[in-house]
Design brief:
There is one protein chain. The protein is of the alpha/beta class and 323 residues long. 30% of the residues lie in helices and 27% in strands. The chain has 10 helices and 15 strands. Strands 3, 4, 5, 6, 7, 14 and 15 form a 7-stranded mixed β-sheet that branches. Strands 10-9-8-11-12-13 form a 6-stranded parallel β-sheet, with helices on both faces. Helix 3 crosses helix 4, helix 3 crosses helix 9 and helix 6 packs parallel to helix 7. The chain is globular and about 55 Å long.
């Protein structure tokens, strides 16, 4: 099969086309013939040598895809060869075929293209597990998500809106802010011209913040929270280390938590998949959630896709066309 390998830790140019054997499904696994693969920030971290795949996972990048079931391993009862699926992957999505746990696959929503479906798993698993299960977002709460025009951000805005939350977001240009408003954000803050702390404090503070920026945003997030508010950290684009006065966390009864998705157990991811099918797939069916598509690249130009992603000029998801 055709695939993209990381030839050495480095920039986008280290993503090199190659050929390698088609994977064989283990117990409880399926092999998917990949039509489209999603491109995500963790792929770039892996490429740079900063995010190793978990033990036993494919060394190839790629954490989500959509396609058709090509082979079914022992113990799999739900899926049959030819079924259209999208799936969360432990790795290996930048290839014509990939093996993954059968319980981490979901049916392609009715009426949705495989191109769009490839953009659902990584963002939906991440947003639902952190914003809802970990962060406990409820209807009527003030919710702030940073990076609102990213794949995570566009997904979080739509799901939070569908849950009845008041959605606030930050983005780096007026164009991106307009895109966030169109998705249902009540207020989109251009962080180059406004201070999100001032905006949220004027509203009474955020009950929940979902942040992937880190760095100097951490103490600012604390100031932007309402008393008893929650901060969920899912990435650190500007670094994981900062000085923070925890007296404010104690006095105002704040909760700071976070998670990464890839190292979690197969069982945990299977539970997230079941949650998505129960709660999020109906949002898609009624038109409350749709992936925002930025651009597509052929599999062989994975380097171009990474360059586009790291430019931060994109709005929504970037995909690789495999078939």
């Amino acid at each position: 099969m055709r695939a993209i390998v990381i030839s050495a830790p480095g920039g986008p140019e280290v993503l090199v086309p190659c050929t390698m054997p088609v994977p064989v499904p283990g117990h409880g696994q399926i092999v998917i013939r990949v039509a489209w693969a999603g491109v995500n920030r963790p792929d770039a971290l892996q490429r740079a040598g900063a995010y190793a795949p978990p033990p036993g996972a494919s060394p190839l990048p790629g954490l989500e895809c959509a396609g058709h079931v090509a082979e079914v391993g022992p113990g799999v009862t739900r899926w049959a060869i030819g079924d259209a699926v999208c799936a969360l992957l432990p790795g290996g999505g930048y290839a014509e075929y990939v093996a993954t746990n059968a319980a981490h696959a979901l049916p392609v929503p009715e009426g949705m293209s495989l191109r769009e479906a490839a953009c659902l798993p990584e963002t939906c698993f991440t947003v639902w597990s952190n914003m809802v299960l970990r962060g406990g977002l409820g209807a009527g709460e003030r919710f702030l998500v940073h990076g609102g025009s990213s794949g995570i951000g566009t997904t979080a805005i739509q799901i939070a809106k569908a849950l009845g939350a008041r959605v606030f977001t930050t983005a780096g240009s007026d164009e991106k802010c307009l895109a966030c408003l169109a998705l249902g954000a009540e207020r989109a803050i251009n962080y180059r011209t406004e201070d999100f702390v001032d905006v949220l404090r004027a509203e009474g503070g955020a009950q929940l913040i979902l942040d992937m920026v880190g760095g100097s945003y951490l103490p600012r997030n604390v100031r932007a929270l309402a008393d008893d508010g929650r901060l969920v950290q899912i990435a650190f684009l500007t670094g994981p280390k900062v000085e923070l006065n925890f007296a404010e966390v104690m006095m105002r009864r704040l909760t700071i938590t976070g998670s990464t998705l890839r190292p979690q157990s197969d069982l945990a991811k299977a539970r997230y998949a079941a949650e998505l099918e129960t709660h999020v797939w109906p949002m898609i069916a009624r038109g409350a959630l749709r992936p925002v598509m930025d651009s597509e690249f052929p599999l062989e130009d994975a380097a171009g896709a990474h360059t586009r992603m790291e430019s931060s000029g994109h709005i929504g998801k970037i995909v690789l066309k495999v078939e």
